[in-house]
UniProtKB/TrEMBL annotation:
<feature type="binding site">
    <location>
        <position position="204"/>
    </location>
    <ligand>
        <name>[4Fe-4S] cluster</name>
    </ligand>
</feature>
<dbReference type="Pfam" id="PF00730">
    <property type="entry name" value="HhH-GPD"/>
</dbReference>
<dbReference type="InterPro" id="IPR023170">
    <property type="entry name" value="HhH_base_excis_C"/>
</dbReference>
<feature type="binding site">
    <location>
        <position position="198"/>
    </location>
    <ligand>
        <name>[4Fe-4S] cluster</name>
    </ligand>
</feature>
<keyword id="KW-0004">4Fe-4S</keyword>
<keyword id="KW-0255">Endonuclease</keyword>
<keyword id="KW-0411">Iron-sulfur</keyword>
<feature type="binding site">
    <location>
        <position position="195"/>
    </location>
    <ligand>
        <name>[4Fe-4S] cluster</name>
    </ligand>
</feature>
<dbReference type="GO" id="GO:0003677">
    <property type="term" value="F:DNA binding"/>
</dbReference>
<keyword id="KW-0479">Metal-binding</keyword>
<feature type="domain" description="HhH-GPD">
    <location>
        <begin position="38"/>
        <end position="186"/>
    </location>
</feature>
<dbReference type="Pfam" id="PF10576">
    <property type="entry name" value="EndIII_4Fe-2S"/>
</dbReference>
<dbReference type="InterPro" id="IPR003651">
    <property type="entry name" value="Endonuclease3_FeS-loop_motif"/>
</dbReference>
<keyword id="KW-0238">DNA-binding</keyword>
<dbReference type="GO" id="GO:0051539">
    <property type="term" value="F:4 iron, 4 sulfur cluster binding"/>
</dbReference>
<dbReference type="InterPro" id="IPR000445">
    <property type="entry name" value="HhH_motif"/>
</dbReference>
<comment type="similarity">
    <text>Belongs to the Nth/MutY family.</text>
</comment>
């Protein structure tokens, strides 16, 4: 894919979703870190429903460590993998108090060392909480990048991230991350992408394939109804 095509993609999704942003509710870096940790294999919508009361009860790392693990588990029970996540949250809070004076570190290398914080979570935190350009590759970003040819089908999540970092200007990394998520979440969905109305159809190998197969399916349906 050439530079002009990449620019077309970035400008188009920018026009479609000019207000794309992090949809996880938070008011500081610590809350954001907890919210992103909870969001693994879980929707932002569900996480936001849980954190409404969670962030009222737990304001600091000390608060999470002041209750038994079982109590924290119950507080996040609606979240997938809640037992493991509760354990990671308490372990993370312990490290924040012991090594970082209770504050979330701003460096990517320090963040990925925290329990339950992988590369994607660290990228979200450094970009949204500390203003450091980063591209976090979640399921939406990965799917859209591969469909549009920004990455190869066989690429790992890390390879997708590296290719996006190379193709997208650094100052646009964070915004592009949000816009790709919105594009994947609300337009180029996993099961029912809006190919018919997509302004990027000409650049989308998945969309072209789907549109080619549609007439064939429609003809079968018509012939079967006779």
């Amino acid at each position: 894919m050439n530079r002009q095509q990449v620019r077309t993609i970035l400008d188009t999704i920018g026009e479609m979703f000019p207000d794309a942003h992090c949809e996880l509710n938070h008011s500081n870096p610590f809350e954001l870190t907890i919210a992103v940790l909870l969001s693994a294999q879980c929707t932002d919508e569900t996480v936001n429903k849980v954190t409404v009361t969670l962030f009222e009860k737990y304001k600091s790392p000390e608060d999470y460590l002041a209750v038994p693990l079982e109590e924290l588990e119950q507080d996040i029970r609606r979240i997938g993998l809640y037992r493991n996540k509760a354990k990671n949250i308490q372990a993370l809070c312990r490290i924040l108090l012991e090594q970082y004076d209770g504050q979330v570190p701003s460096s990517h290398s320090s963040l990925v060392e925290l329990p339950g914080v992988g590369r994607k979570t660290a990228n979200v935190v450094v970009s949204n909480a500390f203003g450091e350009p980063a591209i976090a590759v979640d399921t939406h970003v990965e799917r859209v990048s591969k469909r549009l040819g920004l990455a190869a089908w066989k690429d790992s999540v890390l390879e997708v991230e590296k290719k996006l970092m190379k193709a997208v200007p650094r100052e646009e990394w964070t915004l592009t991350h949000h816009r790709l998520i919105f594009f994947g979440r609300y337009h180029c969905k996993a099961q029912n992408p809006a190919c018919e109305s997509c302004p990027l159809l000409d650049l989308c190998r998945e969309g072209k394939k789907r549109m080619k197969s549609k007439p064939a399916r429609n003809n079968k349906a018509k012939s079967g109804s006779r």
